[in-house]
Design goal:
By secondary structure, the chain is mainly alpha-helical. It has one domain. The protein is built from four helices and four strands. The strands form two sheets. It has a two-stranded parallel ribbon. Strand 3, helix 3 and strand 4 form a beta-alpha-beta unit. The radius of gyration is 16 Å and the shape is globular. This is 1-aminocyclopropane-1-carboxylate oxidase homolog. Keywords: Iron, Metal-binding. Pfam families: DIOX_N.
Length: 119
């Protein structure tokens, strides 16, 4: 996975493009992204990047309540995903669609706030 960072970065353009798609991170994953938009990246010397064809981890919470072993295994998988990627995709979580839409809108508002230290 590569990131789209560099001197040609224009945060305002990336924010508008993200807002226009109205799909957020889920839309990026569904579209099969090849680059992580700079608006989602916080550079750090300690973050290792460069896996070109890695799959974003998916956590299926529908199986997380099948017993203590499943719960412990899910917790370990989440820990591994966070160590390697810093995020993961969650499916079969049971949240209402309207709540998810509110979260997506809140994320849009958050990223639209800007950060003078970003990229």
């Amino acid at each position: 996975m590569v990131t789209s960072m560099g001197p040609e970065h224009d945060r305002a353009i990336e924010l508008r493009a993200s807002d226009e798609t109205k799909s957020g991170v889920k839309g990026l994953v569904d579209a099969g992204i090849a680059q992580v938009p700079c608006i989602f990246v916080r550079p750090s010397d300690s973050v290792a990047c460069g896996e070109d064809h890695a799959d974003i981890p998916v956590m299926d919470l529908g199986h997380a309540n099948a017993g203590p072993t499943s719960h412990d295994e899910m917790a370990q998988n989440i820990g591994k995903a966070l160590e390697k990627w810093g995020f993961f995709r969650v499916i079969d979580h049971g949240f209402r669609e309207s709540l998810l839409e509110e979260v997506i809108e809140g994320s849009r508002r958050f990223f639209a706030l800007g950060d003078k230290n970003a990229c």
